[in-house]
Amino acid sequence: MSFELTILGNSSATPTLDRHPSAQYLNLLEHHILIDCGEGTQTQMSKYKIRKSKIEHIFISHVHADHILGLPGLIFTMNLNQRTIPLHIYGPQSIFEIIDMFLKHSETALKFEIIRHVTNHQITEIILENALVKVTSFPLFHRVPTTGFIFQEQRKLKRINMQACDKFHIPFTYFNDLKRGKDYMSADGKTYIENEKLTFDAGSALSYAYASDTIFDERVAASVEGVKVLYHESTFAHEKLERAIETMHTTAIQAGEIAKKAKADKLIIGHFSSRYTDLNELLFEAKTQFENTELAIEGKTFIIE
Amino acid sequence: MSFELTILGNSSATPTLDRHPSAQYLNLLEHHILIDCGEGTQTQMSKYKIRKSKIEHIFISHVHADHILGLPGLIFTMNLNQRTIPLHIYGPQSIFEIIDMFLKHSETALKFEIIRHVTNHQITEIILENALVKVTSFPLFHRVPTTGFIFQEQRKLKRINMQACDKFHIPFTYFNDLKRGKDYMSADGKTYIENEKLTFDAGSALSYAYASDTIFDERVAASVEGVKVLYHESTFAHEKLERAIETMHTTAIQAGEIAKKAKADKLIIGHFSSRYTDLNELLFEAKTQFENTELAIEGKTFIIE
User: Fold this and answer.
1) A142 Cα to chain B: minimum distance (Å)
2) Helix (H) or strand (E) run with residue B99 in it
3) Is pLDDT above 80 for B257?
4) Which tens digit of pLDDT belongs to each residue from B32-58?
5) C-alpha–C-alpha distance, residues B15 and B158, integer Å
6) Are residues B237 and B251 in contact, defined by beta-carbon separation less than 8 angstroms?
7) Is residue A217 flagged as an active site residue?
8) CA A59 to CA A90: how far, in whole Å?
9) Are B26 and B109 within one domain?
10) How far apart are alpha carbons A111 and A169 in whole angstroms?
11) Assuming Cys at both sites, which of A191, A199, B22, B38 could form a disulfide with A186, CB separation 3.0 to 4.6 Å?
C-alpha cells in the first residue's frame, strides 16, 4: 500500500506564473486525501492526473483565501460529475459557513453528502482513525485559527519469526497476539516465552506532518516529534525575519530548526513568497539547520518510507 | 484611446488544462475593467501581463462559483500589494456577502475601499456613466439572478465641416452646438442652416455587450440591439439542446441567432463546456446563423472599432 505525497501548490498568498497556492494530494494507504485546496487546485489535479472522484477526505488548515479558494469549485465539479459518495471535510467551523454560503447563492443541492468534521485549533486530537491509519490535528500559530495535521499508519504489526515458533511449537492461533506484541503463555500455564524471542520488529510506523501556516514556535516541533517526513512552511528567507514575524510566517532557517528539534527524518519546505524566483536560496538556508531538506516542487511526488 | 477586450477565461464550470473559468479584461477608453473573475484569474492576468493595480472596476454577472472564485484572492493580493485606490465592484448583493465573509474569517482589514454597486437582474439600468463611457446592466435568464453588461463610448460628437462653416461665416462659438447636432440659427434670426450641411457624421458609438450565462431568450437580443460586438455564452453544441435548456445555457446555433436578431457587427462565443476539445464544432454551428463569429480564445485581444 502506498504512502505518497504529491505537491499541487507551493506558493504563499500571491501565486506566480508557475507556482500555485497551497494544495497537496496524499495517498495514505489508499485513503485519497487533499490537504488544503488553494485557487487552481482542480486544474493542478488534472495536470498531475489525480482523479477528483477518488478524493474522500479534504483537510483544511485554516480559512485564508490561498488555502481554500479551490474548494467550492472542486465541490461543484464533483457534483457536475455525478458524485454520490460522501466527502469528508475537516476544518474550522468557518470553512463550512463559506461552503454553505456558496451553496445557498448558487442555489445548488449537492447529489452527495458533505460530512463535516470541525477542527479545534487549541488542542491536539485524533480526527480520523481506523484499523489502518490515524490523522491527528495539532495547533499552529497564525493570524487566524489554524491547525496542522499528522497522517500516519497505525503501528505496524510485528512479524512472526516462523523458525522460532516452530522450535517452541507455538500454535498458530496465538500468532495474532504475538503480532500485537503479547508474550506467549501456553494454555496449561506451564510454558512462557517472551514476545521478542518469537517475533521480528516491524520498524516504526510511517508518518507525515503538515505544518502551514505558522510563526516559528517550538510547540510545533513538540507536536510533530519523531515524525518521518515534516512539511513546514518557509515563506521567507531569514533576512525577512521581521516580515515573517509580522505576518506570522516562518523563515527557511527556522523551518530547519523545527525539523531538527522534532528529530524528523526529512523536511519539505514550501509556501514560498512570490518574491523568490530562485528557491535554492531558501533550500540552502534550511539545510544549514537540517541537511535532509527538499523543496516542495509542484508535481513532485515524495514517497514516505 | 483604446477599446480592447482580452479573454482571460473561456471555460464553463469545469476548467480544463488549457481553459479557465470566465474572466475578461476590458480597456474601455482607459477605464480598466474586469468582467467576471473565475478561479485562476490572477494567474491569467500575470500570464497576459495585465497589471492588477490598474483595475478600477469589476463587473460580476452572477455568483456561480466559476464566475467569482478568483475575486477574493485578487482582492487579498491587491491588499498585499499596498493598494490604496478604491475598487468599484458591480454585482448582485450576494457577491458582497461572500466578500464580507472572506474578510471576516481571514480577519483582514483592507487598506483600500471597496465601493459597492448592487445590480438588479430584473431591469435594464445604467450603472456607470461619465463624460466618456456608459455601462448598462440588463437581465439574463439563468438559474440564479444574473445580469449582462453593455459597455459603450458616449455618443461621439459630430465633426465640423470647416469648409462649409467658412462659406456660411459660422462663428466658432456655435461649433460645440453643431458638434452636438443642433442646426444653425444666426443671432439675428435671419439665417438658418441645417446641421447636416455644416458637419460630418461621427459614426456610431462603439459598444461591447457581455452575455453570460443565460438560456436562449430573444429578450437578450432586444437588450443588446445594435451593439458593435456581442459576447454570448455558447456552452453546448446544438445536439445538447436538452442539456442546455436543463442547465439554462445556450447552444452555439442559438448564440448565432441572438447575434443576428440583435444586428450585431461581430459575435464572440465562449463559456465552453469541458466536453469539447475541438472548439471549431461550436464555431461552425454559430456561423451557420451569423457569419462574423469568432471564438473567445484565451489571451486573444479583440479591438472594438
Assistant:
1) 11
2) helix B93-105
3) yes
4) 999 999 999 999 999 999 999 999 999
5) 46
6) yes
7) no
8) 5
9) yes
10) 57
11) A191
- Quick one: pLDDT at residue A180? 84
| Domain boundary residue, one of B140, B170, B197 | B197
Say which CATH number the domain at A102 has. Answer: 3.60.15.10
The low-confidence residues of chain A, meaning pLDDT below 50, are none
Nearest CA in chain A to B73: A65
Q: Which residue type sits at B125? A: E
Question: What's the pLDDT tens digit per position in A68-92?
Answer: 999 999 999 999 999 999 999 999 9
CA distance B258 to chain A (A): 26
Q: Does pLDDT of B223 surpass 90?
A: yes
Are the beta carbons of B102 and A97 separated by less than 8 Å? no
What SS3 class is residue B176?
helix
**Domain co-membership, B57 together with B193:** no
* Contacts with B275 (C-beta within 8 Å, 6 or more apart), sequence order: none
Measured between beta carbons, the chain A residues lying within 8 angstroms of B246 are none
Residues B81 and B188 in one domain: no
pLDDT in tens, A46-55: 999 999 999 9
Domain extent at residue B107: 3-156+203-303
